[in-house]
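The pair is set out directly below:
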Amino acid sequence: MDEGLSYNTFSMTVSEGKRLIAKGVAALPCVHRAMAEGTVVVTRSTTSGYVLEELVGHEVARATFVTGKTVPGGKPELAKMLTGDMGTAVLVNGEWQQEMELEDAMAQMNAGDVIIKSPNALDYDAGLVGYLIGAASGGTVGDTLGSVHGRNWHFVAPVGLEKQVAGDLAGAAIELSAAGERRKGPGIWVTPAEIVTEIDAIMLLAGVDAFQVAAGGVLGAEGAAWITVAGSEADVAAAMELVEGVRGEPSMLEYVHSL
Protein backbone atom coordinates (compact mmCIF):
# COMPACT_ATOMS: atom_id res chain seq x y z
CA MET A 1 0.00 0.00 0.00
CA ASP A 2 1.23 3.46 -0.93
CA GLU A 3 0.86 5.58 2.20
CA GLY A 4 0.73 8.69 0.03
CA LEU A 5 -2.54 7.69 -1.61
CA SER A 6 -5.92 9.18 -0.76
CA TYR A 7 -9.02 6.94 -0.62
CA ASN A 8 -12.74 7.55 -0.86
CA THR A 9 -15.50 4.94 -0.67
CA PHE A 10 -19.02 5.65 -1.93
CA SER A 11 -22.13 3.94 -3.25
CA MET A 12 -23.78 4.34 -6.64
CA THR A 13 -27.29 3.29 -7.60
CA VAL A 14 -27.80 1.19 -10.71
CA SER A 15 -29.04 4.17 -12.72
CA GLU A 16 -26.18 6.39 -11.57
CA GLY A 17 -23.82 3.60 -12.57
CA LYS A 18 -25.39 3.36 -16.01
CA ARG A 19 -24.85 7.07 -16.62
CA LEU A 20 -21.22 6.85 -15.46
CA ILE A 21 -20.62 3.77 -17.61
CA ALA A 22 -22.06 5.58 -20.62
CA LYS A 23 -19.63 8.45 -20.11
CA GLY A 24 -16.81 5.93 -19.91
CA VAL A 25 -17.84 4.22 -23.14
CA ALA A 26 -17.97 7.55 -24.95
CA ALA A 27 -14.40 8.23 -23.79
CA LEU A 28 -12.93 4.92 -24.99
CA PRO A 29 -10.18 5.53 -27.59
CA CYS A 30 -11.78 3.06 -30.04
CA VAL A 31 -15.17 4.78 -29.73
CA HIS A 32 -13.63 8.24 -29.99
CA ARG A 33 -11.84 7.25 -33.21
CA ALA A 34 -14.89 5.58 -34.77
CA MET A 35 -17.09 8.56 -33.92
CA ALA A 36 -14.63 10.79 -35.79
CA GLU A 37 -14.07 8.60 -38.83
CA GLY A 38 -15.87 5.31 -38.74
CA THR A 39 -19.02 3.53 -37.63
CA VAL A 40 -20.40 2.93 -34.16
CA VAL A 41 -23.40 0.61 -33.76
CA VAL A 42 -25.35 0.81 -30.50
CA THR A 43 -27.78 -2.06 -29.95
CA ARG A 44 -30.87 -1.70 -27.78
CA SER A 45 -30.84 -2.02 -23.99
CA THR A 46 -31.43 0.22 -20.99
CA THR A 47 -27.70 0.77 -20.48
CA SER A 48 -27.14 1.34 -24.19
CA GLY A 49 -29.78 4.08 -24.11
CA TYR A 50 -27.53 6.04 -21.77
CA VAL A 51 -24.57 5.34 -24.06
CA LEU A 52 -26.46 6.62 -27.08
CA GLU A 53 -27.33 9.85 -25.25
CA GLU A 54 -23.68 10.43 -24.36
CA LEU A 55 -22.61 9.81 -27.96
CA VAL A 56 -25.17 12.08 -29.64
CA GLY A 57 -25.08 14.74 -26.92
CA HIS A 58 -28.81 14.96 -26.26
CA GLU A 59 -31.69 13.01 -24.75
CA VAL A 60 -33.21 10.14 -26.71
CA ALA A 61 -36.43 8.19 -26.17
CA ARG A 62 -34.75 5.57 -23.98
CA ALA A 63 -38.04 3.88 -23.09
CA THR A 64 -38.31 2.81 -26.76
CA PHE A 65 -34.72 1.54 -26.99
CA VAL A 66 -35.09 -1.62 -24.90
CA THR A 67 -35.27 -5.31 -25.71
CA GLY A 68 -35.07 -8.33 -23.44
CA LYS A 69 -36.12 -6.38 -20.35
CA THR A 70 -36.22 -8.06 -16.94
CA VAL A 71 -39.06 -6.83 -14.71
CA PRO A 72 -40.36 -8.21 -11.40
CA GLY A 73 -41.83 -11.66 -11.97
CA GLY A 74 -45.03 -10.67 -10.18
CA LYS A 75 -45.52 -7.54 -12.29
CA PRO A 76 -45.20 -8.58 -15.95
CA GLU A 77 -47.38 -5.65 -17.00
CA LEU A 78 -44.45 -3.32 -16.33
CA ALA A 79 -42.73 -4.67 -19.44
CA LYS A 80 -45.29 -2.81 -21.56
CA MET A 81 -43.74 0.49 -20.42
CA LEU A 82 -40.58 -0.30 -22.39
CA THR A 83 -40.42 -1.09 -26.11
CA GLY A 84 -37.95 -1.75 -28.88
CA ASP A 85 -39.69 0.62 -31.27
CA MET A 86 -36.46 2.52 -31.85
CA GLY A 87 -34.16 0.29 -33.85
CA THR A 88 -30.45 -0.27 -33.50
CA ALA A 89 -28.64 3.07 -33.64
CA VAL A 90 -25.98 3.50 -36.32
CA LEU A 91 -23.58 6.45 -36.15
CA VAL A 92 -21.33 7.11 -39.15
CA ASN A 93 -18.61 9.71 -38.65
CA GLY A 94 -20.53 10.84 -35.58
CA GLU A 95 -23.82 11.34 -37.41
CA TRP A 96 -26.85 9.25 -36.41
CA GLN A 97 -28.14 7.46 -39.51
CA GLN A 98 -31.68 6.96 -38.27
CA GLU A 99 -32.90 5.11 -41.36
CA MET A 100 -29.97 2.69 -41.57
CA GLU A 101 -30.60 -0.92 -40.57
CA LEU A 102 -28.05 -3.07 -38.76
CA GLU A 103 -27.51 -5.30 -41.81
CA ASP A 104 -26.73 -2.29 -44.01
CA ALA A 105 -24.40 -0.84 -41.40
CA MET A 106 -22.49 -4.10 -41.07
CA ALA A 107 -22.02 -4.29 -44.83
CA GLN A 108 -20.04 -1.05 -44.85
CA MET A 109 -18.17 -1.37 -41.55
CA ASN A 110 -14.38 -1.59 -41.52
CA ALA A 111 -11.67 -2.84 -39.19
CA GLY A 112 -11.62 -0.75 -36.02
CA ASP A 113 -15.33 0.07 -36.10
CA VAL A 114 -17.39 -0.57 -32.97
CA ILE A 115 -20.37 -2.66 -31.89
CA ILE A 116 -21.78 -1.73 -28.47
CA LYS A 117 -23.98 -4.32 -26.80
CA SER A 118 -24.84 -4.40 -23.11
CA PRO A 119 -24.90 -7.91 -21.58
CA ASN A 120 -27.07 -9.65 -19.01
CA ALA A 121 -24.24 -11.25 -17.06
CA LEU A 122 -20.68 -10.42 -16.06
CA ASP A 123 -17.72 -12.52 -14.98
CA TYR A 124 -15.39 -9.59 -14.33
CA ASP A 125 -12.26 -11.46 -13.29
CA ALA A 126 -12.48 -13.75 -16.33
CA GLY A 127 -13.16 -10.88 -18.73
CA LEU A 128 -16.38 -12.53 -19.90
CA VAL A 129 -19.93 -11.34 -20.43
CA GLY A 130 -23.11 -13.28 -21.08
CA TYR A 131 -26.20 -12.61 -23.15
CA LEU A 132 -29.53 -14.32 -22.53
CA ILE A 133 -30.58 -15.88 -25.82
CA GLY A 134 -34.17 -16.64 -26.73
CA ALA A 135 -34.00 -16.52 -30.54
CA ALA A 136 -32.88 -19.67 -32.35
CA SER A 137 -30.51 -17.55 -34.47
CA GLY A 138 -28.82 -16.05 -31.41
CA GLY A 139 -30.40 -12.62 -31.82
CA THR A 140 -28.15 -9.59 -32.29
CA VAL A 141 -25.20 -11.46 -30.78
CA GLY A 142 -25.59 -14.15 -33.42
CA ASP A 143 -25.90 -11.51 -36.12
CA THR A 144 -22.73 -9.64 -35.18
CA LEU A 145 -20.20 -11.67 -33.23
CA GLY A 146 -18.78 -13.63 -36.16
CA SER A 147 -18.03 -10.42 -38.03
CA VAL A 148 -16.54 -8.86 -34.88
CA HIS A 149 -13.80 -11.48 -35.00
CA GLY A 150 -13.66 -12.03 -38.75
CA ARG A 151 -13.52 -8.34 -39.66
CA ASN A 152 -11.65 -6.95 -36.63
CA TRP A 153 -14.33 -4.80 -35.03
CA HIS A 154 -14.38 -3.72 -31.40
CA PHE A 155 -17.07 -5.41 -29.29
CA VAL A 156 -17.77 -3.12 -26.33
CA ALA A 157 -19.89 -4.37 -23.43
CA PRO A 158 -21.14 -1.65 -21.05
CA VAL A 159 -22.34 -3.46 -17.93
CA GLY A 160 -23.18 -2.56 -14.35
CA LEU A 161 -21.59 -4.41 -11.46
CA GLU A 162 -25.05 -5.59 -10.38
CA LYS A 163 -24.82 -8.11 -13.23
CA GLN A 164 -21.79 -9.88 -11.74
CA VAL A 165 -22.70 -13.57 -11.37
CA ALA A 166 -21.53 -16.08 -8.80
CA GLY A 167 -19.63 -19.10 -10.02
CA ASP A 168 -18.40 -20.12 -13.46
CA LEU A 169 -20.31 -18.22 -16.17
CA ALA A 170 -18.76 -20.16 -19.04
CA GLY A 171 -19.49 -23.44 -17.27
CA ALA A 172 -23.11 -22.41 -16.76
CA ALA A 173 -23.46 -21.70 -20.49
CA ILE A 174 -22.03 -25.11 -21.38
CA GLU A 175 -24.39 -26.89 -18.99
CA LEU A 176 -27.45 -25.04 -20.28
CA SER A 177 -26.56 -25.89 -23.89
CA ALA A 178 -25.99 -29.55 -22.98
CA ALA A 179 -29.44 -29.72 -21.34
CA GLY A 180 -31.02 -29.62 -24.80
CA GLU A 181 -34.80 -30.06 -24.79
CA ARG A 182 -34.81 -30.43 -21.01
CA ARG A 183 -34.01 -26.73 -20.67
CA LYS A 184 -36.82 -24.24 -20.18
CA GLY A 185 -36.14 -20.53 -20.53
CA PRO A 186 -33.32 -18.78 -22.38
CA GLY A 187 -29.81 -20.00 -22.93
CA ILE A 188 -26.77 -17.80 -22.39
CA TRP A 189 -24.05 -16.88 -24.88
CA VAL A 190 -20.74 -16.17 -23.16
CA THR A 191 -17.96 -14.23 -24.86
CA PRO A 192 -14.94 -12.04 -24.11
CA ALA A 193 -15.53 -8.35 -24.71
CA GLU A 194 -14.14 -4.89 -24.07
CA ILE A 195 -15.93 -4.52 -20.74
CA VAL A 196 -16.85 -1.16 -19.24
CA THR A 197 -18.22 -1.20 -15.69
CA GLU A 198 -18.47 1.63 -13.20
CA ILE A 199 -14.94 0.70 -12.12
CA ASP A 200 -13.51 0.94 -15.64
CA ALA A 201 -15.34 4.18 -16.37
CA ILE A 202 -14.08 5.99 -13.29
CA MET A 203 -10.51 4.77 -13.81
CA LEU A 204 -10.58 5.95 -17.43
CA LEU A 205 -12.22 9.29 -16.75
CA ALA A 206 -10.48 10.28 -13.52
CA GLY A 207 -7.12 8.48 -13.69
CA VAL A 208 -7.58 6.80 -10.31
CA ASP A 209 -7.44 3.19 -9.21
CA ALA A 210 -10.84 1.77 -8.29
CA PHE A 211 -12.26 -1.42 -6.85
CA GLN A 212 -15.58 -2.70 -5.55
CA VAL A 213 -15.95 -3.37 -1.82
CA ALA A 214 -19.67 -4.11 -1.33
CA ALA A 215 -23.05 -4.19 -3.04
CA GLY A 216 -26.74 -3.73 -2.41
CA GLY A 217 -29.12 -1.24 -0.88
CA VAL A 218 -32.77 -0.46 -0.15
CA LEU A 219 -35.45 2.13 -0.93
CA GLY A 220 -34.30 2.63 -4.51
CA ALA A 221 -30.66 1.62 -4.03
CA GLU A 222 -31.23 -2.08 -4.70
CA GLY A 223 -28.32 -3.38 -6.76
CA ALA A 224 -26.09 -0.47 -5.75
CA ALA A 225 -22.31 -0.83 -5.93
CA TRP A 226 -19.95 0.36 -3.20
CA ILE A 227 -16.71 1.47 -4.85
CA THR A 228 -13.41 2.73 -3.49
CA VAL A 229 -11.20 5.07 -5.49
CA ALA A 230 -7.53 5.57 -4.72
CA GLY A 231 -5.01 8.06 -6.05
CA SER A 232 -3.52 11.44 -5.45
CA GLU A 233 -5.66 13.86 -3.49
CA ALA A 234 -6.36 15.83 -6.67
CA ASP A 235 -7.28 12.75 -8.70
CA VAL A 236 -9.60 11.43 -5.99
CA ALA A 237 -11.26 14.84 -5.80
CA ALA A 238 -11.75 14.75 -9.59
CA ALA A 239 -13.24 11.27 -9.32
CA MET A 240 -15.69 12.38 -6.66
CA GLU A 241 -16.67 15.38 -8.76
CA LEU A 242 -17.45 12.96 -11.57
CA VAL A 243 -19.53 10.80 -9.23
CA GLU A 244 -21.44 13.82 -7.94
CA GLY A 245 -22.20 14.70 -11.55
CA VAL A 246 -24.35 11.59 -11.95
CA ARG A 247 -25.96 11.71 -8.50
CA GLY A 248 -29.75 11.57 -8.60
CA GLU A 249 -30.00 9.91 -12.01
CA PRO A 250 -33.62 8.65 -12.06
CA SER A 251 -34.29 4.94 -11.98
CA MET A 252 -35.83 3.50 -15.14
CA LEU A 253 -39.21 3.35 -13.39
CA GLU A 254 -38.94 7.00 -12.35
CA TYR A 255 -37.87 7.89 -15.87
CA VAL A 256 -40.80 6.23 -17.64
CA HIS A 257 -43.27 7.69 -15.11
CA SER A 258 -41.92 11.15 -15.94
CA LEU A 259 -42.72 10.84 -19.65
